[in-house]
Amino acid sequence: MRIAIPLVQGKLSLHFGHCNQFAVVDVNPTDKKIINTEIFDAPSHEPGALPKWLSGIYVNLIITGGMGKRAQMLFEQYGIKVMVGAPVDAPQQVAESYLNGTLQTGANICDH
Q1: DSSP letter (8 states) at residue 83
Q2: Cα-based distances in Å from 73 to 8, 20, 38, 109
Q3: At what angle do helices 69-77 and 49-56 cross, to 10 degrees?
Q4: d(CA 43, CA 47)
Q5: Contact 10, 90 (CB under 8 A)
Q6: Domains of the chain
Q7: Which of 34, 51, 54, 88 sees the fewest Cβ atoms within 10 Å?
């Protein structure tokens, strides 16, 4: 499984559209282990570009602080699940919390 976490200054971005990098974390959900983490510079934020790009690198899940409903629907069309309301933290900690079932999520901070 591959988890994409949008980053600003090396930590989870509260607003998906404001990220400048992505941490892509390969995990084994059965063993609840992180296998690998890669950092990618974000491609340009043009409509439809990010779902295609993340799908092309086999991402299954995005964990972010906030994302608009239209963007969420675009990702779902590519088979990518979106989890919003996650707190600012290092990508490895976010992934570990998700794997352990302890990731605390709140409201989607993006209202468009």
Answers
A1: E
A2: 23, 22, 25, 17
A3: 40
A4: 11
A5: yes
A6: 2-100 (3.30.420.130)
A7: 88
Quick check: 73 and 52 in contact, CB under 8 A?
no
pLDDT in tens, the chain (112 residues): 999 999 999 999 988 888 889 999 999 999 999 999 999 998 887 778 899 999 999 999 999 999 989 889 999 999 999 999 999 999 999 999 999 999 999 888 776 5
Give the residue from 21, 8, 2 showing the smallest Cα distance to 98.
2
Residue 104 CB burial class (10 angstroms; 0-12, 13-18, ≥19): exposed
CA distances from 48 to 1, 18, 55, 105, 110 (A): 22, 15, 11, 26, 18
